[in-house]
Amino acid sequence: MSKKEVIYDEALVPSYQLPSLLGKSDGSSAATAGEWLSTRRPEILAIYRERVFGKWLHRPQIQWYETLSVREDALDGEAIRKEIRIHLGSAEGKTHSFDMLLYIPKTATPEHPVPVFIGLNFRGNHATTDERDVAMTGFGYEKNQYLNDESRGNSVPRWCFRETIRRGYASATICYHDICPDYNDLSCFRQSVLSILGSTDDLSLVHRNYTAIGLWAWGLSRGLDCLESEVLVDSSRCAVHGLSRLGKTSLWAGANDERFKLVISTDSGCGGAALFKRCFGETAEIISTAFPHWFVEAFAQYRGREDLMDFDQHFLLSLIAPRALCVASATEDLWADPLGEFLAAKHAGDAYRLFGLSGIESDDMPAADEWLTGDVSYHLRTGKHDQTPEDWAHYWVLADRIFQK
Ligand code: GCU
């Protein structure tokens, strides 16, 4: 589909056939969890690494954490707040760092560490919280328009730190620009973590192998490494979440790093939870033209040729199985194709069933603001493209269920 013809009418959705999730490349089907894990899952992961989001970068040879600040009386005395610099280094002595903001409920103890949410933010750590003494971050992107005092706290409802803490969860965030700035061309890699851990001399080579989404997702894993060293946090109970492009990112992080036990995408749309083959709203062509650095070069073969895809986004979601998955959409976010997100979540259920878990059984989307809560969860929030307290309400309930609080 070309850009002129963005489809917002179900009647115009082309007919398509979804590739079989369980069908292995040798023609047989994965029939057990063991076969899934040993054969089919690696095949699917390889498709995404080779043709969509690129290679998973190696772990840095050198990694250390510097505590920049600690407040014992944060959020009106309900939380401990930390700002931690995550330093990554290469054997040649090159370094890159980004800063994580972490809130931990005061009720946490080393004997009873708490589960944790982690997600990347768009604007800077200072925008996620109403505490005005949090350091500004997001300098990785020179055009970041939120590097000012007026922008402090302007994303608070997307983060809901106070309620998350009250419910007994820690919550961590990093500004995505500080891992790889989100410039709309390949030059972004020069200022990214890849510049020290790989090589960015030849950008066309980078484009063949790596993507910004891949680097952001990998940065979430480094955040989780750091959480592993926090005694008040139980990093074995970690939920990763993200909105929009950062929801595509949380899915890719969950696909690669099995330490994420609950994976949440909010309004992740094209390249995230939505099926490509429906061509509803944003398409492969539109997204890879506007954001060439989000996909590897090989993805370009699918521009306007979704019919050539031997995968679709139920494959991406299936990589989370048997861990918990939640896909969230919003009624007014047609660009992200809510029905396509629902259908991908539903079809990912085939992988969950191999583990004796449940998928989404219904063929119909739930009514707006109704939650489908299970091993594969879904909701369609009334409203616009955003992550709101109404979304969080479902995430907390899910986390309570999964982390057995
Ligand atoms: C654009 C892009 C989407 C993306 C969104 C966002 O709208 O087309 O794919 O999800 O930005 O990240 O906000």
Shape, please? globular
In whole angstroms, how far apart are the ends? Answer: 46 Å
Helix content: 25-40%
Main sheet record: 10 strands, mixed
Radius of gyration over alpha carbons? Answer: 20 Å
- Unreliable stretches (pLDDT < 50, length at least 5) are none
SSE order, one letter for each helix or strand: HEHEEEHHHEHHHEHEHHEHEEH
The small molecules bound here are:
alpha-D-glucopyranuronic acid
The percentage of residues in β strands lies in: 15-25%
Contiguous helical run count:
13
Task: Please provide a written account of the structure.
This protein is an alpha/beta fold and 405 residues long. It contains 13 helices and 10 strands. It has a 10-stranded mixed beta sheet, sandwiched between helices. α9 (245-256) links the parallel β6 (233-243) and β7 (260-266). The protein is globular. The mean pLDDT is 97. Bound molecules: alpha-D-glucopyranuronic acid. The site of alpha-D-glucopyranuronic acid has 7 residues, from loops. Alpha-D-glucopyranuronic acid (GCU) is lined by residues 244-245, 269-270, 282, 287, 335.
Quick summary of this structure?
The chain has 13 helices and 10 strands.
Task: List the SSEs and their pairings.
Elements: H1 33-51, E1 62-73, H2 74-77, E2 79-89, E3 95-105, E4 114-121, H3 125-128, H4 156-159, H5 161-166, E5 170-175, H6 194-197, H7 203-209, H8 212-228, E6 233-243, H9 245-256, E7 260-266, H10 284-290, H11 313-318, E8 324-330, H12 338-354, E9 371-372, E10 376-381, H13 389-402
Parallel strand pairs: 4-5, 4-6, 6-7, 7-8, 8-10
Antiparallel strand pairs: 1-2, 2-3, 3-5, 9-10
This protein binds alpha-D-glucopyranuronic acid.
